[in-house]
Amino acid sequence: MGKGTKFVLIDLKRLLRNMGISKDLVIRFFKNNCSPQEERELTNWLAESDENIQRALRWVESLSDEDEKLFLKLMLSSGEVWEKASESMDQDLPGDKVMAKEKPFRGYILGHMRRYAAIFIAFVVLSATLLFYYKLNYIHIATGYGEIKNIELPDGSKVVLNGNSKLHYSLLHGGFNREVWLEGEGFFDISHTTDHRKFKVFTESGKTIEVLGTEFTVLERSDISRVVLQSGSIKLSIPETEDLMMQPGDLVEISGNQLHTAQEPEKVRVDPETYSSWTTGKWKLEGTSLQELLQKVESCYGVQVTVDDKALLERRVSGSIPLTDIGSDTLLQDIADLFQLKLIRNDRELILSK
Fold first, then answer.
1. Which three-class secondary structure state does DSSP give residue 229?
2. 123 with 77, same domain?
3. Which terminus of the chain has a lower count of CB atoms within 10 Å, N or C?
4. Element (H, E) at 218
5. Helix (H) or strand (E) segment spanning residue 343
6. Structural domain of residue 346, as residue ranges?
């Protein structure tokens, strides 16, 4: 086979690889959603030339999400990393050409080993850069079981985070964009800004809560999703349903199978303080069932309690239970006393009985 034919084959292989590289593949690659084969192909393609990196940057520019765009651009703009990887892949070690002539197969293997080693080193450096970037620009706040934490956001808004909950937000573009993500339960007291910028809360189930200045409680657990408005107004966006406008005293709750369907939830009128009383160190109860209380205990304190008679779960009480400076043991005993039940400890099992 002639030299010219060899160059044609190399260019043809490169052309075929380029044809398989798409915008979708680039975005999926940096979101860690590629197969191992796709990762190898795209890694080789990016390391081939600055032109390929520039093409990937143009694809990133077309994204609508500004934060995602900035993040991916940072990954791709680490030109020095890719340049070093590319140089390392293209350069031969002294004696390689002679060795390749004497032992072609061995030279081929060593060349590919250097190539993939360089790619691996590039990714290690890039990953460290990205980790540092994330720590600088993304704030993550979490509470343990039974812990309540008061948080003041950069815009002056306040959040009270209940036990076993997480809140995170971004400081990209040199400031706070009034967008937060919640897992668990939080009470929000949102400050109004002079430029009337909206505040958004995103939840794991896909809900978006949009406000200007208001107070509300959000609960987002695996089995239930709830929003209760205390003051102001809210536009609640739920996937595959029409937006809901909420007024003070409105409750919107999605539970069980509704979490995975497009069924439109209904607004219910309630006393908002019943759902935010935990922020003042107590649980306010208004016809609250034992089942609801035990679910709260498990979600916020990580303690599971059973009953020896399922009918007990339907019992309801009104009143309040103090939460300040007490552990789950005292709380469980208070619940047992309130419902006139016995708390039985059987090894590691906790049981409520008549």
1. strand
2. yes
3. N
4. strand 215-220
5. strand 342-346
6. 281-353
